[in-house]
Amino acid sequence: MEPEYLCEDNICVISYKDSIDFEFCQTHPLIKKEYTAKADFFVLDLKQVLFIDSAGIGNMVGIFRTLDAQSKKLCLINISPNIRRVLQISEIEHVFPIFDSLSDARFHFLGGYKI
Question: Please, are residues 84 and 100 in contact by the beta-carbon 8 Å criterion?
Fold first, then answer.
């Protein structure tokens, strides 16, 4: 299923549904290139993600490195306990800043008051 994009205030939120797996990664980029020029901060909302496999994790690490090389930031929000466990087992949980909500991520990136 196609991710949903919402870009405003230099932050682009990408919401995924169902699975981020090999099949998904073959047909969809995690972040479309046209959006990387629109923002400096990217938030991957995993609230509706039920499954992620090694291809999905590999793609997340790849996009993290690509954005980092462009001095752009990436974080994850709304991670279920199951997805968090997969990240822990993969030993990459500490690669990504992880926040409970978009408000927390915005506060971290932009400072100021929580929304």
Answer: no
Q: What is the pTM of this model?
A: 0.89
Place of tokens 């087992």: 89
Total structural domains in the chain?
A: 1
| % of the chain surpassing 90 pLDDT | 61
* CA pair distance 97, 95, nearest whole angstrom: 7
How much is the pLDDT for 74?
A: 93
Q: Is residue 112 part of a domain?
A: no
Q: Going edge to edge, which strands form the sheet with 98-99?
A: 4-8, 11-20, 41-52, 73-77, 98-99
**Is residue 110 a part of any domain in this protein?**
no
Please compute the mean of the pLDDT values over residues 96-105 and round it to a whole number: 91
Q: Is residue 57 part of a domain?
A: yes
Across 35-49, b (16+ Cβ under 10 Å) vs e yields: ebeebebbbbbbeeb
